[in-house]
Amino acid sequence: MKKIAILSASVRNGRNSHRVALYFKNYLQTHQLAEVNLIDLHEYNFPIFEERLRFISDPSEAMLRFASQITEAEGIIIVTPEYNGGYPASLKNVIDLLYAEWKRKPLAIATVSAGAFAGSQVITSLQFSLWKIGALVVPAMFPVPTIDKTFNEHGEPADKEGTDKRANAFVGELIYWMDAKAKVD
């Protein structure tokens, strides 16, 4: 079975984007599409890193566990809120911590906002950072507007049928690129 990690990027108290991470965990498991590993940055409480992992003389167990989870995943869904037109520092922090672990890793991006624009402003800057380190950002996106109306705190969508239809296309694109990468490795 394929291995997909879901990276929940927000570390704020009262965060709402985590609802979408919970949705994808349930969606992937219910449809038996992949082994799922939910990586919740809120649980790590990482400091601001001063160097890439490979240059840190005494990395913490948490850093090594995080790196291992990214390495082991065949594909990753990044769920990120949009904060003031960008993505959270917690996400930039872990992107910059690693390098080889992201290289040629198929990634799909789900953006979340409280407003109507669904995190659309965060896409360009996040894609650019991921492209610069060689990640394979798939062309499908999963934008979520007005999160407080579209998903409850348990990750259940208000419009299950419509959300599942969008998720099917989004996850299908990620799996396509995971399969394509596996053929060339």
TrEMBL record:
It comes from the Bacteria. Pfam families: FMN_red. Residues 3-144 form the NADPH-dependent FMN reductase-like domain. Its EC number is 1.-.-.-. InterPro entries: Flavoprotein-like_sf (IPR029039), FMN_Rdtase-like_dom (IPR005025), NAD(P)H-dep_reductase (IPR050712). The keyword Membrane does not apply. GO terms for molecular function: oxidoreductase activity. The keyword Transferase does not apply. Gene3D superfamilies: 3.40.50.360. Keywords: Oxidoreductase. PANTHER family: CHROMATE REDUCTASE, NAD(P)H-DEPENDENT FMN REDUCTASE LOT6. This is NAD(P)H-dependent oxidoreductase.
